[in-house]
Amino acid sequence: MSDKVRVVDILESILEKLDNVNNKMSMIEDQVGAISYDVTKTQERLGAVVRQYQQERERCKTLEATITRNTERIARLCSRLAHAWDRIYRMEANIVKKEEEEEVSLGEMNVNATENHEGTSERDDDVAERIKKEDGVDAEEVKRLLLALLDNGEVAEGSA
């Protein structure tokens, strides 16, 4: 019996060791399950990050296209603004030129008016002489009245 007892002891020892191995295997399976769960969750988070990255990339492309369009639009508006300012400057220069021409023209008109007035004085002398001859009125008095009318547009009171 001793061999039988020994065999039983050996078998019991083997069973204990197998039981320990089985427990360790169960613990390893639990750890593998936990790791598998962590891997699954990590994959889900990674998938969410990848989707978010793709959305952000698409949004960046959209923003880039919008920025490009807006930049082109700003460039067109700047060009139009530059043309408008150029037109304003040219118009302003034309206005200044016309004002200067008008000033010169007014100056010439004043000179012409003065010359015409002087010529009128000479003609007034002729008219005064003719009136004196025809009506017997003093030529100097007529000349003075005509000059007063030309200068003021009215005759001083008491002389008519």
UniProtKB/TrEMBL annotation:
<feature type="compositionally biased region" description="Basic and acidic residues">
    <location>
        <begin position="115"/>
        <end position="134"/>
    </location>
</feature>
<protein>
    <submittedName>
        <fullName>Uncharacterized protein</fullName>
    </submittedName>
</protein>
<feature type="region of interest" description="Disordered">
    <location>
        <begin position="102"/>
        <end position="134"/>
    </location>
</feature>
